Amino acid sequence: MMAMKSETVKKAEKLVEEMMGGNDASHDAAHALRVRDLALSLAREEQLLDSSLQIVELAALLHDIGDYKYLRDPSEEKVVEEFLAKEGVDIEKSSKILAIIKGMGFKEEINGVANGSHIPEFGVVQDADRLDAIGAIGIARCFTFGGSRNRVLHDPNIQPRSDLSKDQYMKKEEQTTVNHFHEKLLKLKDLMKTKAGKRRAEKRHKFMEEFLKEFYEEWEGKA
Fold first, then answer.
1. pLDDT tens-place string over residues 114-139
2. Domain containing 75 — which CATH number?
3. Total domains present in the chain
4. Are 142 and 180 in contact (CB under 8 A)?
């Protein structure tokens, strides 16, 4: 059983490399691997059962395949479902993995709804993904993504949007990279689901606040 699980994970890693290899470095295969490692670490801190770890690992590894921001073909939305079926992952586990992936995005929680939050494994996978979006790596990813979209770093005349709807969040016209900190990244600390995630988020959040303070001072020629 353990060998079969390990083989499935190896194939999942290969699928991640194939599907995400062409993405910019903010959402590449390395991101998925970091989220997997974080999720397993959080799961152990939260003392999840061993039977939950395969769900956590596969959901974390596969969570960004078919991401709307990088979708090249509508068929990619079915890749994960087809992979799990081909690997013979049982229906109960497969359903949980797919529900976690579908519900874990920030855009799904803007209106106060987090699909899959009733699933024990959901919190650790979502928290892991959000931890990778904040702190030092989060800052690097944010500017990498902004650069890939030719977005300006900062414009004092463009204010961060407040009370965003899901549709508004997904449409990022005339937005700056720095505004993304205020519209999303600085909110993630308070949206963590697990105690382990909350603890780790504190340090990363503080680092982002210090970075932004320095950024604004340098922008204005004060530092």
1. 556 678 899 999 999 999 999 999 99
2. 1.10.3210.50
3. 1
4. yes
